[in-house]
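Notes from the pairing session

We agreed to fold both candidates in a single pass and log them together. This is the raw record for the first candidate, unedited. Please don't reformat it; downstream parsing expects exactly this layout.

Candidate A
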Amino acid sequence: MKIYRSSDYRRMKWKNGGGETAEIAVFPAHATMDDFAWRISMATVSSNGPFSIFADCDRTLSILSGEGMTLACADRAATYLTTDSAPYAFPADAATTATLADDRVTDLNVMTRRTVMSHSVTRMTVDGEIDIQAADGSVVLFCHDGRMAVTVDGTVASLAPQDCAVVDDMGRRPLVLSGKASFFVIRFNEIS
């Protein structure tokens, strides 16, 4: 298990220069915007406009704070996303435009290069203790609000808001989560 603290995230300009992003984790380590297999980041969107285009990638977006925004993606119907919405998956290489409901939102972005990886994102809560079934690929737990502990094979790590834990190749062993928090479970699987 590897822990990433919010204070250590790498801050950079968006690929299209329209805003700022905080890179939470990337695989392989030190990959660039052009050669990652997967990437997790947070972005602050403070004006209406287009999203960056990432060739051959799929993206899932979740609103973390703010009043929400409407996404218009290629030929899909426009979708209004808020902090209560399910994570929204769409192709990262399709022309996508955001229209804010208010002055800004912060969102969680998960991307995979579709020729090598796939991903899923689920929003969950813990109030007490729960088990999360791991899988053959990587599992990332991103703490949104509150605090929680993650136990893997007797090793315990505490997550504060916007921290995350990356667990690789757990097989079918469970991850034990405890505390009171809202969080995201992100699963990555290699394309065979």
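Candidate B (folded immediately after A)
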Amino acid sequence: MQHRIIVLGAGYTGAFAAGRLAKRLHPDDVQITLVNAEADFVERVRLHQVAAGQDLKPRPFAEMFAGTGVELRFAKVTAVDADAKTVAVTGATGPETLAYDTLVYALGSGWTDQGVPGVAEHAHEVASRPGALRLRDRLARMDAGQTVTVVGGGLTGVEAATEFAEARPDLHVALVARGGLGDWVSPKAQEHLRKVFGGLGITVHEHTDVVEVRADALVTADGRTLPTAATVWTTGFAVHPVAAAAALETTDRGQIVVDRDLASVSHPDVYAVGDAAYAIGDSGSPLRMSCASGIPTAQVAADAIVARLTGAKAGRVPLGYVQQCVSLGRGEGLIQFVTADDEARSGSLRGRFAARYKELICKGAAWGVANPTYGLPARRRRLAPAAATTGSTVKALA
């Protein structure tokens, strides 16, 4: 019988992993099912561009995976039972239970209100396509001179603020940062950030904590009230809640604890990749939630699965960092070179060249997902006899 591999989530990591597995395993021996709620790929790293009014190239999964042998299942994952090796989903035909032999968990993360009052009711997010589209509609309806305030001074917040300011110079754009503006980059890079922000007319509230979000204002920890017509919340991510209820060993943040092969330490037939995984990089530090972590973890997991099932030897893909790529609107950018554990080095690229560099990175990531099997060895490995399993793939719930 075929070995049943289910991949949950078709973001950068899940789609990449499914394609790599399809290219490296013989279709007579495995059945690979990719489960995702939406029918086309979402370029999450560009959602601030969507919110600013830009349209992205459609990437339907049916076209991306045509001819690969990957079965597509468009459904929402509602539960995982790691002990029973089943996944509960709800799709167009109702609830179903999918049985697996190997599971790749790539459900990723979404936004979080960090427990701050008023965020859920009054703030917008750019961590999902629906959220970006809602914000897009809100910005389109804003009048000249009104204020849009981005809360969060990390990569997402910086990119969103500069994108909005460039696309809508008639609006007043503000950024609220808990630390200093760009205090995670080198001094020259930080200087460049300040120059770009100044040129775009963005107001920056540094070393400021927001303790409440209202419909028309933000309340800060030092008692100030900052008027705003729209608030964009970018203070961090929360992982999908399914893993914590799946009998898998997770951290207090809900990430699945994995070994160097990205296999769950409590259930070795489950591999977690991307934001869903609590993985330790080669430097000894946990990997951060990011696309830069996601693709390497997906490659490691896919290669480890192939090695386990076929008896082949997996290569060792590095788990660490080289750079942080930041778009500052369409014409400016910042490439901060970092150590393997993500600490800023002195070197950086700035300006238009950095903007083009970042654009190539984004295009390359999307192209790699849209062409998941390109460039891999044509020979598909047969499974070792011990990997053969039995059992039906799908059982309808009564």
